Amino acid sequence: xxxxxxxxxxxxxxxxxxxxxxxxxxxxxxxxxxxxxxxxxxxxxxxxxxxxxxxxxxxxxxxxxxxxxxxxxxxxxxxxxxxxxxxxxxxxxxxxxxxxxxxxxxxxxxxxxxxxxxxxxxxxxxxxxxxxxxxxxxxxxxxxxxxxxxxxxxxxxxxxxxxxxxxxxxxxxxxxxxxxxxxxxxxxxxxxxxxxxxxxxxxxxxxxxxxxxxxxxxxxxxxxxxxxxxxxxxxxxxxxxxxxxxxxxxxxxxxxxxxxxxxxxxxxxxxxxxxxxxxxxxxxxxxxxxxxxxxxxxxxxxxxxxxxxxxxxxxxxxxxxxxxxxxxxxxxxxxxxxxxxxxxxxx
Length: 347
Known about the structure:
The chain is globular, with a radius of gyration of 19 Å. The chain is about 50% helix and about 10% strand. By secondary structure, it is of the alpha/beta class. The longest helix has 21 residues, at about 95-115. It contains 17 helices and 8 strands.
């Protein structure tokens, strides 16, 4: 029998998406009105919210069910705990005032669901990045009052990235609360997305990692981690490709700085790879592939890589078994599935 006791660890899945009914209704409003001016959003939710294909219908139903079907799916695949986060683009499509209201409502609903399933669910707080002071206050409310375990941003906000000091109250709040900020992908922004669209490369196949890896590198090169040295960032999908580029990132960044090539790339206190190893944590969401998982564990640290399923976007029972068979010691396997998540998210 497959139980935490028999296997020696709980399986904690650390990037599991959900959406409130109210937010999904607003996505429908934007799609039907055609006023959102975001081709990436149109391609993503124009499919999942409107297509009658089996894949779209399954995801559309699962992502809005935070109770019976979700718990049943966890039971069916042996997931003991799911860490929930508001699906992309979250509240970031909307005006600051509406985004704040939607974030507050989603956090309240998430906390209520966790109270109904306290041993099975945990969650991260949504917030409005484009209202940074209010967003910081909502993260604090989510953590201190609602018991949420950190914050979640769906990467860029209407084309703006958080290396802009406008957003830095968010980092101040996360550092002061000692909670991680999970940067989840968004569809590439309108100024970036066009070459992806004609071959449907804009979402999880390539555009997500290209866009979110860019965001993380912008944070590093801008000096965010010199200003906030204790800031903790979590990236999914084994780091959105960045752990595979450590040497080249370091080499090229050093050359750019040494030559004074750009006002946007000033000297840092450490190498880019040092920040990726010391301020970042990684989940395996959507990447249940032993060679890649092993490389990231070896390069970034066995204490920095956590299991995730990426439900419901990637709900494949066989992937859980594949991760159980990773070539790890019992202590390393327990850290991957349970211990790292417990430590980083204070579960």
